[in-house]
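If I may wish for something, please walk me through the protein I am sending here so I can picture the backbone:
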Amino acid sequence: MRFPAIPHPLLLRSLVVALIGTVSVGTALAQADEARAKRIAGGSCFLCHGVNGESTSEVFPRLAGQNAQYIAKQLEAFKSGQRKSSAMAELSARLTSDEMLALGRYYEKMEPPREAPKDPALAAVGQYIYHHGNRFSGVPSCASCHGANGEGAANLPRLASQFSGYLFTQLKQFNNRQRTDDNQVMHVVVEKMTEFEMAAVSEYLSGK
């Protein structure tokens, strides 16, 4: 019976050193990306989105806890003009794709603020619509794409803990085609929703 040859000790040592070196380089690059993202966020993003991505105005979305790839995707959309915002177009124009993703990862690590909905009765209606839709008007369940807890995934946004006013505004923009950066699914869904349903879903998610 023949056994496989055991690599020479020097070769094994070289392989181990190479692996450790690869891990070290990867860690160093990640740390450099995070440091660069922190500088960018501290230089401009914090003015609207808060020092810790918490925001203090419903005009500006909370970025804390938002999915990294989604943030990068939106920055690319602002840069290309696919999503409209004069302020964001100017800021995103200075960023590379790597910096956009680094910013996404930077904010994704932050803990989003959590607070109870301001209108519990409205939130209760929103909870039903979010999870079950409205079979009478054809509005589908939001949870089927955005997840049971509103946390989204990858290129889909985290909706949980977002300002209700901001979410309502975005739904209205999808409805009147002011937002065209995402796929047609949102247009098809939102055109069936009443403003009451938009407000209810937004209120429910704000307290998640």
